[in-house]
Amino acid sequence: MVFPYIDIVSKALVVVITSLWLLSLSTKAAAPNYLYNFCGNDTTIYSRNSTFKSNLNLFLSNLSSNNTPNNLFYNATAGPGPPGAAYGLFLCRGDVTINVCHDCVVTASQEIVKNCPNETVAYIWYDECMLRYDNRSFFGTVDESPKVSMLNTENIAEKDRFAKVVGDTLDELVNQASSNRSLNDQYVKKFATGDVNFTSRQRLYSLVQCTLDLSGADCKRCLQVAIDNL
Q: Which residue from 78, 113, 124, 181 puts its CA 20 to 30 A from 173's CA?
C-alpha cells in the first residue's frame, strides 16, 4: 500500500491514504509493521527490583500468555494502587482479526521494554496495534501528548480541493466513530473508515479510531486534536 499520512495522539489515530488502489487490510499472519515508540523522561525511571517493575511484568505477561478478553481492546491495572501499580492498555486497529491483533500485542509487549527499559511511561505503535503503560491511571481521560505525525512527502495536485475532501471526509468519520448510532456495528469499536474518489484514477482512504475507555464526547475531541495537526 502507499504509506499514509498518520497522525497519532495518545488515545486517537487518524490515517489518510491517497492511492491508485485499495488499501490492503491486515487479515493474515505477518510481522507487525513498527511505526514509533515514546519513552518517558528521566523523572519516570524505575529500579529493577521495584514494585512497579513486578507489576509491569505481571501486566505484560498476561498479554503475552493470551489471558485477555477476546477483543481488540483491553485495559488493566496490576497492583493494588499507586505508587507501585502498573496501568496499561492495548488497542488494535478496528479492521484486523483477533489473531493479527494478538500477534501484534505479543510483539509490542516484548519490544516496548526493550525500547524503554527503565521508564514508567512508555508507548509503542504498530500499523496493527498500540500498547502503552504508566505508573498513574490514565483510563477514561484524554491525553493530548505525546503526538506523533508521519507523512508521505509526495506532492498532491489541487491542494485546496484535496484539503476540503480530506476535511469533509474526516468530519463525517469522526461523527461516526464518536456517536452511539450503529453503522455496521463499527461504533462499538469507536472506529470508522471511508473512501471517496479524488480523481478518476485516485481514491482517498481514511480511518479514525479512539480507545474504548473514552466517552463519545472525549473521543470526538481527541480525534479533532489529531486532525488539527494534519
A: 124
- The strand ranges marked E within 54-155 are 73-78, 86-92, 122-126, 129-134, 147-150
Computed on alpha carbons and rounded to an integer, the radius of gyration of the chain in Å comes to 18
Q: What is the pLDDT along the chain (230 residues), one digit of tens a residue?
A: 333 455 666 666 666 555 443 444 444 557 899 999 999 987 778 998 999 999 999 999 988 776 666 688 999 999 998 889 999 999 999 999 999 999 999 999 999 999 999 999 999 999 999 999 999 999 999 988 888 887 777 777 788 998 899 899 999 999 999 985 545 555 568 999 999 988 888 888 899 999 999 999 999 999 998 888 87
* Residue type present at position 183: L
Which neighbouring-strand residues pair with 123? Answer: 38, 132
Q: Per the CATH hierarchy, to which homologous superfamily does domain 34-139 belong?
A: Gnk2 domain, C-X8-C-X2-C motif (3.30.430.20)
pTM score, whole prediction: 0.85
